């Protein structure tokens, strides 16, 4: 959270009237809605959420034990903002953008203490600034002034703040600067630094929203192959506990071909965030080979951290994402989990004694969810570049019941739905994404990309797989009643082919070094291998070979090993030839 | 410190009193009844002139003339290494007749959140000696792994078995943990005196009491006290782990009673209820307990939690198991059907899960084949289970040879792998070897989740023949 401006803007102070958990009411406080205030003798950070008469209600982002009436409340006069500038990547924040590593140092304790604040980016670090405009050039809001090598992967673009009037560049200089030193002076007298602030609850401006036409390639077969998400698209991953929401989110954060990843751990487990902190600096970015952390910004507000900061962490995340979008980057934001965010809203709302909507959630739940997802998209930025924010939200429905309000309200907005299934998880079918319930509305608009960049018949192959899986669904119902042997031979064969689709194509081992990432070409080739088995087996069947013999060919089980092959092209070629040969030998 | 005789309302576990000075939220209160009894409570809401107090020991006996004293601090737990071997009541007072506890430090019982940046990722395997856990749902140090049970099931026996047998195998110990000792913290909330005796007798019989601290809130103790008991237990655990380098195993039973107490307080405060009447903040509240498990970088000790909860009506979508499952790192299911078959411990591996397993197993940690074996057995047992439904309809003869092997596997898996008895302590090698005995029933081509090299190394050729013969 920004500290730079708070001193000069302090306004009227008030006193605490009552305290109940994270909700504090103050008397005589002159404040606007959503102003940030410092509460009590320890100066705990909070935000104004209700004003009634001379009483102001504040949600406090820290523990309130021991805070009592008559302690002071100080208004900063500023809404909740994030600090933007170089240094956002390769860092880890809490829900109000306090860097957790700095907090550890300042508090000198592994526990999170109260009343300690720190700016979101390092204020005294020097960055190497390289101008891209010259003196005399005319610049407008959003224009790129120069670049800073932020990490090995990402070149940070220094932008004219969106609020600036613009003007002619009066002076600009290359060299080392801190984020607070002016790097550019305009003829209007405006000085521009690398440091910007932006209120989290407000979307950064853009020119227009465009139709996304490029997939966010994830390296996960079932996602890329069957239910792709676009760069700038939105997706929801609902599922009961233990079905693999977090692993799916982690896989996306690791392998999605976005330039920047913003990972928001919202009300989830501490150990999970630690895993990300420990793993990401060591893992390689599949596109650049650099450490993954170099393109990642983490926001960790675990379940035991204050609930009000959980409410704000989603906004902090999306604002950072928009900032990089403005530079022309493709950003992917993962929010795990949006249900915890909704629950934080519910908790605050119930402390305010608001009239509850469905299942105790506030009536504005659906509005907040759509506001959030609408900040995603493929944009033309105000400086003319194109950038995108893809938003992928995990949902944790109570009891795994998708009819609950958070899932339902999310589904009304997002265009990709990856339904996790406890049943699949129980049999260790991972990723446990249910192929008959899930959908992607981007399929058609992304097909041209796959046709152009992978293979011509990508859509047809996919349709073939979908048809087989649908047919299996129907056949399984019959099998449950009469057993497999009662089916006609060609249907028994379909079941066998569908089994390979499930085991060799849909399943993917996130913990295997090779199988964890599957390029689209491999995704396509695996499908063609299974298709070959299907076609050749059909021919054999037509030639009168009994289905038992067809199923028993030695080469078929090797389909299940394609995933772990590094030299998959050759392996698949060999396998197809072998399957064909072994089947043709039968007749 | 002022005393007030200004109680205006008494309702359930809550007392409202007028005050003329500011009182801090969460502060501790002492209420003295006219009979001279002292009860402790905590400030739930503080506004100018009026505070709401939640009384731990129940409000009976309090009247308008009772005196209310605010102690000016939040609830603290006196901690010292001497607590080991002691038995305390649900609010931390000794009940074993032993000497008074001389605290070394006093810690706030509402533990501050551990900075995720300061945590160390748990990946040190704990051998519980229970195959269904070690082999299929491995527990690691610093994990929180609850037992999902229900009334009438032997969850306590399993908890005791784990407490008794849990070790870190010698050759896996990392350098820094050599000297760390093992301690058990037992936090009982609303369990019956009989259950409590069962635990105490076992602790005494095995000598485990010496390295344990026991907190007892029994079924007839005040319900509100239950909201404090786990916090006292966890504060003690954190102290022993992170300041005295112990590896602490915390057993909390029964979390269902804890949640009932939360609901009771919520109802008394006339809060807007969430699902099934439980407060809307129950997720946050439970997280503040469960998240106190873990490891901290630079500290040798660890806090591992095994909370036990009984699912009302065996329903795991009930808010208590549901919210718990979303916070904890997996769960162990006790299964009623397996229990009635006489399987001990009746753990059903299919819905059970350990999220931290993948990083705690494998070469150098347990054994190279661990992940593949467990994966394959999961898939095979799940398929066997499916086929059981089918057999009921079409009979075994209608099934293919392949299906019959899966059925046999499911049978033998329960009998040989899961059913080991509450007194058998198996090493991880024994567990995995039994796994291979069972997997070798299948032809090699069916073992599609096991690496081919591992199949060559561990597969028993003869088992398949036996199976085929048995079939014939």
From TrEMBL, chain A:
Keywords of the record: ATP synthesis, ATP-binding, Cell membrane, Hydrogen ion transport, Ion transport, Membrane, Nucleotide-binding, Translocase, Transport
A Pfam family recorded for this sequence: ATP-synt_ab_Xtn
Family annotation (PROSITE patterns): ATPASE_ALPHA_BETA
Cell compartment(s), UniProt: Cell membrane
Coiled coil: none
Boundaries of every ATPsynthase alpha/beta subunit barrel-sandwich domain copy: 119-201
Catalytic activity: ATP + H2O + 4 H(+)(in) = ADP + phosphate + 5 H(+)(out)
GO cellular component, one term: proton-transporting two-sector ATPase complex, catalytic domain
Annotated ATP synthase A/B type C-terminal domain residues: 448-550
Example GO BP: proton motive force-driven plasma membrane ATP synthesis
Domain ATPase F1/V1/A1 complex alpha/beta subunit nucleotide-binding: 219-440
Residue ranges occupied by any ATPase F1/V1/A1 complex alpha/beta subunit N-terminal domain in the UniProt entry: 16-77
Binding, ATP: 239-246
Membrane topology per record: Peripheral membrane protein
UniProt entry tagged with the keyword Translocase: yes
Any one GO molecular function term: ATP binding
SUPFAM superfamilies noted in UniProt: C-terminal domain of alpha and beta subunits of F1 ATP synthase (SSF47917), N-terminal domain of alpha and beta subunits of F1 ATP synthase (SSF50615), P-loop containing nucleoside triphosphate hydrolases (SSF52540)
E.C. numbers: 7.1.2.2
Family to which the UniProt record says this protein belongs: Belongs to the ATPase alpha/beta chains family.
Function field: Component of the A-type ATP synthase that produces ATP from ADP in the presence of a proton gradient across the membrane. The A chain is the catalytic subunit.
Subunit: Has multiple subunits with at least A(3), B(3), C, D, E, F, H, I and proteolipid K(x).
Matching PANTHER family: H(+)-TRANSPORTING TWO-SECTOR ATPASE, V-TYPE PROTON ATPASE CATALYTIC SUBUNIT A
Protein name per UniProt: A-type ATP synthase subunit A
Gene that specifies this protein: atpA
TrEMBL record, chain B:
Protein family (similarity comment): Belongs to the ATPase alpha/beta chains family.
UniProt-listed CDD domains: ATP-synt_V_A-type_beta_C, ATP-synt_V_A-type_beta_N, V_A-ATPase_B
Assembly mode: Has multiple subunits with at least A(3), B(3), C, D, E, F, H, I and proteolipid K(x).
GO biological process, one term: proton motive force-driven plasma membrane ATP synthesis
Family matches, as InterPro entries: ATP-synt_VA_C, ATPase_a/bsu_AS, ATPase_A1-cplx_bsu, ATPase_F1/V1/A1_a/bsu_N, ATPase_F1/V1/A1_a/bsu_nucl-bd, P-loop_NTPase, V-ATPase_su_B/beta
Domain ATPase F1/V1/A1 complex alpha/beta subunit N-terminal: 7-72
Compartments, record wording: Cell membrane
Annotated GO CC locations: plasma membrane; proton-transporting two-sector ATPase complex, catalytic domain
High-level lineage: Archaea, Methanobacteriati, Methanobacteriota, Stenosarchaea group, Halobacteria
Organism: Halogranum rubrum
Pfam families assigned: ATP-synt_ab, ATP-synt_ab_N, ATP-synt_VA_C
GO MF entries: ATP binding; proton-transporting ATP synthase activity, rotational mechanism
Sequence ranges assigned to domain ATP synthase A/B type C-terminal in this UniProt record: 359-459
PANTHER family documented for this protein: V-TYPE PROTON ATPASE SUBUNIT B (PTHR43389:SF4)
Alphabetized PROSITE patterns for the sequence: ATPASE_ALPHA_BETA
Main location: membrane
Annotated ranges, domain ATPase F1/V1/A1 complex alpha/beta subunit nucleotide-binding: 129-354
Biological function: Component of the A-type ATP synthase that produces ATP from ADP in the presence of a proton gradient across the membrane. The B chain is a regulatory subunit.
Topology with respect to the bilayer: Peripheral membrane protein
Origin: domain of life: Archaea
Protein name: A-type ATP synthase subunit B
Alphabetical UniProt keywords: ATP synthesis, Cell membrane, Hydrogen ion transport, Ion transport, Membrane, Transport
């Amino acid at each position: 959270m920004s500290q730079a401006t708070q001193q000069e803007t302090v306004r009227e102070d008030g006193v605490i009237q009552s305290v109940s958990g994270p909700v504090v009411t103050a008397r005589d406080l002159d404040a606007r809605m959503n102003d940030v205030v410092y509460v009590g003798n320890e100066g705990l950070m909070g935000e104004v959420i209700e004003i009634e008469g001379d009483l102001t209600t504040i949600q406090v982002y820290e523990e309130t034990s021991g805070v009592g009436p008559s302690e002071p409340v100080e208004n900063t006069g500023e809404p909740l903002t994030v600090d933007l500038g170089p240094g956002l990547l390769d860092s880890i924040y809490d829900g109000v953008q306090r860097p957790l590593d700095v907090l550890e140092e300042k508090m000198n304790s592994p526990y999170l203490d109260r009343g300690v604040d720190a700016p979101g980016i390092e204020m005294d670090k020097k960055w190497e600034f390289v101008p891209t405009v010259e003196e005399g050039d005319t610049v407008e809001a959003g224009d790129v002034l120069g670049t800073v090598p932020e990490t090995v992967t990402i070149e940070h673009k220094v932008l004219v703040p969106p609020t600036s009037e613009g003007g002619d560049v009066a002076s600009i200089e290359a060299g080392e600067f801190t984020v607070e030193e002016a790097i550019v002076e305009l003829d209007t007298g405006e000085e521009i630094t690398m440091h910007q602030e932006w209120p989290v609850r407000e979307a950064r401006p853009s020119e227009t929203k465009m139709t996304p036409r490029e997939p966010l390639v994830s390296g996960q077969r079932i996602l890329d192959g069957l239910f792709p998400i676009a760069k700038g698209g939105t997706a929801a991953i609902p599922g009961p506990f233990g079905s693999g929401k977090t692993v799916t989110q982690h896989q996306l954060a690791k392998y999605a071909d976005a330039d920047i990843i913003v990972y928001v751990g919202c009300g989830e487990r501490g150990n999970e965030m630690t895993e990300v902190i420990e793993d990401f600096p060591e893992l390689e970015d599949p596109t650049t080979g650099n450490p993954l952390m170099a393109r990642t910004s983490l926001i960790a507000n675990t379940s035991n951290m204050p609930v009000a900061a959980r409410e704000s962490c989603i906004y902090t995340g999306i604002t950072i994402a928009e900032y990089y979008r403005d530079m022309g980057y493709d950003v992917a934001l993962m929010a795990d989990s949006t249900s915890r965010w909704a629950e934080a809203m519910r908790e605050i709302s119930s402390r305010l004694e608001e009239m509850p909507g469905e299942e105790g959630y506030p009536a504005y739940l659906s509005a907040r969810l759509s506001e959030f997802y609408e900040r995603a998209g493929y944009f033309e930025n105000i400086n003319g570049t194109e950038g995108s924010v893809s938003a992928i939200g995990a949902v944790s429905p109570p009891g795994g019941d998708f009819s609950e309000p958070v899932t339902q309200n999310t589904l009304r907005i997002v265009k990709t739905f990856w339904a996790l299934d406890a049943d699949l998880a129980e049999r260790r079918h991972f990723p446990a994404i249910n192929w008959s319930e899930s959908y992607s509305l981007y399929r058609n608009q992304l097909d041209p990309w796959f046709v152009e960049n992978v293979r011509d018949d990508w859509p047809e192959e996919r349709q073939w797989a979908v048809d087989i899986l649908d047919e299996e669904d129907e056949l399984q119902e019959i099998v449950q009643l009469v057993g497999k042997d009662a089916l006609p031979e060609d249907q028994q064969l379909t079941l066998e082919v569908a089994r390979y689709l499930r085991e060799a194509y849909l399943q993917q081992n996130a913990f295997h070094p090779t199988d964890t990432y599957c390029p689209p070409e491999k995704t396509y080739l695996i499908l063609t291998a299974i298709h070959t088995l299907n076609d050749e087996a059909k021919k054999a069947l037509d030639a009168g070979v009994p289905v038992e013999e067809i199923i028993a060919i030695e080469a078929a089980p090797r389909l299940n090993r394609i995933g772990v092959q590094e030299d998959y092209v050759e392996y698949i070629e060999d396998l197809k030839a072998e399957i064909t040969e072994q089947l043709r030998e039968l007749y | 410190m002022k005393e007030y005789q200004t109680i205006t309302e008494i309702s359930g576990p809550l007392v409202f009193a007028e005050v003329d000075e500011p009182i801090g939220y969460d502060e501790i209160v002492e209420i003295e009844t006219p009979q001279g009894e002292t009860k402790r409570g905590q400030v739930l809401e503080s506004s100018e002139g009026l505070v709401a107090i939640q009384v731990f020991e129940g409000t009976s006996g309090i009247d308008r003339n009772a005196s209310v004293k605010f102690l000016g601090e939040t609830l603290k737990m006196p901690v010292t290494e001497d607590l080991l071997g002691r038995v305390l009541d649900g609010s931390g007072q000794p009940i074993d007749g032993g000497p008074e506890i001389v605290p070394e430090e006093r810690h706030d019982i509402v533990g501050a959140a551990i900075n995720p940046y300061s945590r160390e990722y748990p990946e040190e395997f704990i051998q519980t000696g229970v195959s269904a856990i070690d082999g299929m749902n491995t527990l690691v140090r610093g994990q929180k792994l609850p037992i999902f049970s229900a009334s009438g099931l032997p969850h306590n026996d399993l908890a005791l078995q784990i407490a008794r047998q849990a070790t870190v195998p010698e050759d896996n110990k990392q350098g820094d943990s050599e000297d760390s000792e093992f301690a058990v913290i037992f936090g009982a909330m609303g369990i019956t005196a009989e259950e409590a005796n069962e635990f105490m007798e076992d602790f005494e019989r095995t000598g485990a009491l010496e390295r344990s601290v026991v907190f007892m809130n029994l079924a007839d103790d005040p319900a509100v006290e239950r909201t404090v008991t786990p916090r006292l237990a966890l504060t003690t655990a954190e102290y022993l782990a992170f300041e005295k380098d112990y590896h602490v195993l915390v057993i909390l039973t029964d979390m269902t009673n804890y949640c009932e107490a939360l609901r009771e307080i919520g109802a008394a405060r006339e809060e807007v209820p969430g699902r099934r009447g439980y407060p809307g903040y129950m997720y946050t509240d439970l997280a503040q307990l469960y998240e106190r498990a873990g490891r901290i970088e630079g500290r040798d000790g660890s806090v591992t939690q095994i909370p036990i909860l009984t699912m009302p009506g065996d329903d795991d979508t009930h808010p208590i198991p549901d919210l718990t499952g979303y916070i904890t790192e997996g769960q162990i299911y006790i299964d009623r059907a397996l229990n009635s078959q006489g399987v001990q411990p009746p753990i059903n591996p299919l819905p059970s899960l350990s999220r931290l397993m993948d990083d705690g197993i494998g070469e150098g940690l347990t054994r190279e084949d661990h992940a593949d074996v467990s994966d394959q057995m999961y898939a095979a047992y799940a398929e066997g289970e499916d086929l059981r439904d089918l057999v009921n309809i079409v009979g075994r003869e209608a099934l293919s040879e392949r299906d019959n092997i899966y059925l046999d596997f499911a049978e033998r898996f329960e009998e040989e792998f899961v059913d080991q008895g509450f007194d058998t302590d198996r090493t991880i090698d024994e567990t995995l070897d039994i796994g291979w005995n069972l997997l070798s029933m299948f032809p090699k081509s069916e073992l599609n989740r096991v690496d081919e090299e591992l199949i060559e190394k561990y597969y028993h050729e003869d088992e398949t023949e036996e199976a085929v013969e048995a079939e014939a």
